[in-house]
Amino acid sequence: MEFAELQPDLQQWIRDAVKAGQQPSVMVEALLRAGYQPSISRAVKQCIADFGGSGDPDCRLPRAQADSGQRFRLFEPQTNNIPVDTQRVEVLLSLRSPNLILFGNLLSASECNALIELSRPQLKPSRVVNSDNGAFDLGEARTSYGACFQRAECPLIAAIENRIARLLGVSARRGEPLQILHYERGAQYRPHYDFFSPERAGHREVLSHGGQRVGTLIMYLNDVVAGGATVFPKLALEILPKKGCGLFFSYANERGELDYQTLHGGSPVGEGEKWIATKWLRQADYVTEED
């Protein structure tokens, strides 16, 4: 069980216990009595490792999080409106630390509708990478359904991937396959990081295909009636889904340093449904055995 996958209130309880100097064995014993599985001990160890077990865990910046505004800026907008092929993309929000930009008019309404219809027949329960063995497992942390499309699989996918590459100035070959996700009412993705841990055996195989993930682009394909926001707990920030908009954030640099401010998740859909398209970017060209 990963610390980033825990509910925010449980994460805070563990942080408070670490801050108070509580022994790990005592913390784990209390959590087991509360009904948690033995794997909760891993989450406790991760929290202690990240925050050093001393001082205020919310004040001690892990690794290279400090001064991340410059070192993690994979893209920085120079104007409020960016013409990219058929679209005039708008910059609606820009943060420097972490590097986060909200785009308007990234996709047209017809493109959003087409992506949804293209993915419907291929939807399967979403999985997460097991950090111990590299398997793609089902889990309570992620309760959406998804479909993946290979690079330039059809003219629609190719056009969108080329637009992303031109907008961000990042080669399309560095992108993982476009993933379409469908969240029904109550579905969510608990807070997590998109980057991988080189220290974990299960992530090493994933990292061999293009290196570390450096950035994420989430494209909203429909308007959600209630809920379904993209949340950043460490920033107290919520991005509400808006059809055609895109949310980009980056979190790794060429030295392998990671920005832990980018902890994020998808809040439960309260009413209606939620459709998004996700494109992850790597340090180098993303290659598989099929390439």
TrEMBL record:
Gene3D superfamilies in the cross-refs: q2cbj1_9rhob like domain
Q: Which SMART domains match?
A: P4Hc
Q: Which residues form a coiled coil?
A: none
Q: Where in the numbering of this chain does the Fe2OG dioxygenase domain appear? A: 174-283
Keywords on record: Dioxygenase, Iron, Metal-binding, Oxidoreductase, Vitamin C
Name the source's superkingdom: Bacteria
Q: Which cofactor does it need?
A: L-ascorbate
In terms of Pfam families, this protein maps to:
2OG-FeII_Oxy_3
TM segment ranges: none
Q: What is this protein called?
A: 2OG-Fe(II) oxygenase
What organism is this sequence from?
A: Microbulbifer bruguierae
Q: What is the lineage of its organism?
A: Bacteria, Pseudomonadati, Pseudomonadota, Gammaproteobacteria, Cellvibrionales
